[in-house]
Amino acid sequence: MKIFHTILRIGLGLMLLIFGLNKFFWILPDFDFSGYPQAEYLFNSMRYSWSESINKGYLMGLVGITETVAGLLLILKKWVPFALLLLVPISVNIVLFHAFLNIPNIGPALLVAILNTYMIYKNWDSYRSIFT
Amino acid sequence: MNSSFTKILRILLALGLLFFGLNKFIEFSFMTMPQLPENAADFMSSLQATGYVLPIVGALEIIIGLLLLFNKAVPFALLLLAPISVNILLFHVFLDLPGIGGALVIAIINVVLIYKHWKVYRPLFH
């Protein structure tokens, strides 16, 4: 069981690291938003553009940094409950984004959200003090 | 820093949140939105176009405001507020510097109150 959890933790960490760095180095292929104008609009306005005068959104960079940091913390098994907490707003929003604006690509979003929830559940003791 | 100072901060933050949260649902007639610079307006209208972002943020602000007002689950409410604080601050820093006042107030009170309750957050960093 311990090995299973270690695999989950490292797997989630790696996924986050790759998706996070992808927002800066664009290694993975781009999503296909055809037919979903609102999704494309939101996605583009969240990207920070160094060259164009429009599209000065900061969100993609913020999400990228957070994902990279959380991914590293998970892989190194450091401050794991905090890393999982950092991940919660991202998980919630990537699921909502796909649920409302782009259902076809919801697979990875659901996977991350489910892993996130399960790992928080496994670590619940560390969060208990917040609810004293 | 004593407990009535933090109580004032908590209630101030709660009222501010309730005001901004409710403002997303019922347009207060005296609250005129200043003209946003082009990039900020673009960003806000894309959030509006999603249909779900602003109502969820508004609802969260109201819930957190109520929790803080009635002194219930305060550390949890402050934690829920953190992503919202970070983002309203960054939005103004990157896209609308003139309007940063309200965002700064909310973020600073959020940080101060979290610092005040830091003991309960320590297990997160074990």
From TrEMBL, chain A:
It comes from Ulvibacter antarcticus. It is found in: Membrane. One of its GO terms (cellular component) is membrane. The chain crosses the membrane at residues 7-28, 57-75, 82-100, 106-124. Keywords: Membrane, Transmembrane, Transmembrane helix. It is a multi-pass membrane protein. This is DoxX-like protein.
TrEMBL record, chain B:
The keyword ATP-binding does not apply. GO terms for cellular component: membrane. The chain crosses the membrane at residues 50-69, 76-94, 100-118. InterPro entries: DoxX. It is a multi-pass membrane protein. Keywords: Membrane, Transmembrane, Transmembrane helix. It is found in: Membrane. The keyword Transmembrane helix applies. This is DoxX-like protein.
